[in-house]
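Figure S4 source data
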Amino acid sequence: MSDKVLYENPLNTRYASREMQENFGDAKRFTLWRKLWIALAEAEMELGLPITQAQIDELKKHVSDIDYDKAEEYEKQVRHDVMAHVKTYGDAAPSAKGIIHLGATSCFVDCNSELMIMRDGLDIILRKLVNVMEKLKTFALKYKSVPTLGFTHLQPAQLTTVGKRATLWLQDLLLDYENLNDLLSHVRLRGVKGTTGTQASFLELFDGDAEKVKELERRVVKKLGYSRVYGVTGQTYPRKFDYNVLCVLSQIAQSAYKFSNDIRILQNMKEVEEPFEKSQIGSSAMAYKRNPMRSERMGSLCRYMLSLPINSAVTASTQWFERTLDDSANRRIVNAQAFLTVDAILNVYMNVAENLVVYERVIEKHLKQELPFMATENIMMECVKAGGDRQELHERIRVLSMEAGKQVKQEGKDNHLIELIKADPLFSAVRERLDSILDARKFIGRAPEQTEEFIASEIDPLLNAHKDLLGEKGDVRV
């Protein structure tokens, strides 16, 4: 049970998945350190250094049984986390104590493990992202032909459809997916570079044999499941990579933020609503309320994520020469929290996207309030076709529209513009066809076709490529 006296990060206690928490947890990180030391020792043995298979076997035997209490005690003594774990590992595998971390600097384990952890974190984000996209696709196709008011400047504008609007959310995520894929294609390890990146210590170990040093790096990286390394480094991998990662995570948050705001506005209009559970309470005071807490949580988490890339930008900008340690404490917080935050955002996004409720009658009611104004040009054109004077018709529609607008805005009544037009002799030629002219489906352009075409050409190929990742549901923990 947690200690309620101490502060606990809400990302862990309330929002992020256990999977992402474990990805950045100590057990994974320090186990990776031991795997890195094993890979290094094994490659060094293969290339002729005096390391025995028995030593390697003992290291492998103790790869996971980490004595964290002992490591903490050592760190209090030496004030160095890597050396504390070297000593702890040496105590567990005494025959190999003298060859652990041979020739390496702390960043051999710290940087390489961080890159591997972030790569795994990006894979989790990718999986959740494509699941959100799959749920939005289903929603978009279901409502592709349902007319709804479009909004520009948050004012009623030309009609669109409920499904077509969802493709705008999908389009944002598609761009994020492309940026994430590009980032994944550039992930590489720091490799085996030594203290300032020159590989001098390894050159010394192999008596000046540069080819063996290069082969050492190739073998170590291969044993860890990678093939690419940074060609040159200082003591660390370039901190610009952290910034690139956080920028991609920020872009996903930007898309989710936009979606969450749209849903909150639509819920205010009672057109579309996020899921609301049977026993859920919207307000401690106002029992009738159905607050969009999921979308509000998304927005809140997104806002935090948007603030993080500037932190990494400053870190990358202030690395002195081959490295400076003022990045360390900062990165322990920022990198992990960025991943946990976006993980939490996507969990909620999946939940909302899969369970959106659409109130078509409310949407239709809102349409009827605004459509008469939008249809006036069509009405006027039909009258001109029947022999009417365009300028005279325009002026009359202007006058009637002002009268109807006054009734709506000043008197709070329904829009009666169509009744006014029907009663006006100037529009007698179209009086019997007004209902047909006012069919909302005639004002949505190619929205249904655009929805189908976009999904078929850009979303379906993506989802088919990741069909083994689909089927996940969003978890809202509290």
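Figure S5 source data
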Amino acid sequence: MSAFYTRVARFYDAENADKTDDLQLYSRLAEEYKGDILDVGCGTGRVLIHLARQGHRVHGIDNDGAMLERLAVKLEESALLDENISAINVDVLNHEYQTRFALILLTYNVLMHFHEQERQIALLGKLRRWLAADGLLVIDLPNAGPAFAAQDTEALTLERSFLDPETGHMIMLHSVSIIERAEQLLHVDWIYDIVDGDGGVRRLLAPHKLRYFFLAELRLLLERCGLGLAAVYGDSDRGDYTSESDRMIVFAHAV
């Protein structure tokens, strides 16, 4: 997943500035599960910094150096966070922690970057070993049902517009996507149209691939790795999970 995020890292925070709906969930869980927290795929620190500011000790891991450079700049500007945060640039599958974590987070869509079953099992097996006996693993995914039920159009869709904080230029973000249903893969071309001060447009194309998961499949993967499904919710307010839910937020524990 690193090549995609290296390409779009400069836009990531501005593009996702309004993604805050899940933060209170993680705050409540951090208060409930006292101890060190691991944020897998921490990126520029959206969740990691939020929890550190509340006094929690948070460890981040991400394989994209460009995203972590953005995190490092934020930490330089907030020196008081240093004692609560550690972040490393490494593939999670090639790393080992001695720490046992009270809370492990696979936040917004992170698991979707693990396309092959072998890598999914390798990841979840590691997280099982790193999870404290009474700890909690949280996996936040889109609900695959509505996406699979919708018709593919391959239409160009305007997702959002935002300002590049470095240049002040308008960014118009479009997408073209198609689902490869047999393999449960979502192929997306993210198209960043950068409008400069003279009205000229420069286009950045960033292809991306993500894998959908269904609940029954995820339950079996967890069981295969020594984890049990504790709860599943349809949103970050712990609403009921239904076939129409936007999200599938899974809580799992060691068994």
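The first strand starts at residue 37 and ends at 40. The first helix runs from residue 2 to 15.
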